[in-house]
Amino acid sequence: MDLGTVFLQQAIQLLQAQKKKGEDALNQITEDELTLRTHEDGNSMAILIQHLAGNMKTRWADFLEGDMEKPSRDRDGEFEEQALSQAALMHAWEQGWNTIITTLQSLPSDQLLATVTLRGEPRTVLLAIQNELTHYSYHIGQMVALARWIRGSQWKNLSIPKKEVNTG
């Protein structure tokens, strides 16, 4: 197996792990809590879902053709509350993740050094994938922090829990 194939497989594994972490955070809040924000200019869970889904669907559909930032994308609109139901948000979430994962599953490893364009700037497919991995990780981290803030003391840890201090 060549290095490019290994990279693609591991990128897909990382995406699947990020998706799961986001869903584990989402599963701890209610539909009414999807629009809560820590402050007026902050993002809610609903906004983060809209943004991630919009990014994935537009950037990774036909990403080798033209600019990855499609003219049809309303990025600013992704950061406005759209009063979508939890079902509609989760449908968009699934569509987004399916778009990027399916694209990477079908991408031949010899395309990793091909050039794509994002907002007029050329980059390799390899770098585009790495950029998205960090971008999605950033927003999934925001989702986890927001869900933890919402849930407070009822939060169920998504990671290795801290060791309990033995005071005995």
Overview of this protein structure:
This protein is mainly alpha-helical and 168 residues long. The chain has a single domain, classed as Four Helix Bundle (Hemerythrin (Met), subunit A) (Up-down Bundle), CATH 1.20.120.450. The longest helix is centred in the C-terminal third of the chain and has 27 residues, at 125-151. The relative contact order is 0.19. Helix 1 packs parallel to helix 5 and helix 2 (45-60) runs parallel beside helix 4 (86-106). A hairpin with a 2-residue loop joins strand 1 and strand 2. It is globular. Strands 1-2 form a two-stranded antiparallel ribbon. It contains five helices and two strands. This is DinB superfamily protein. Pfam families: DUF1572 (PF07609). It comes from Marininema halotolerans.
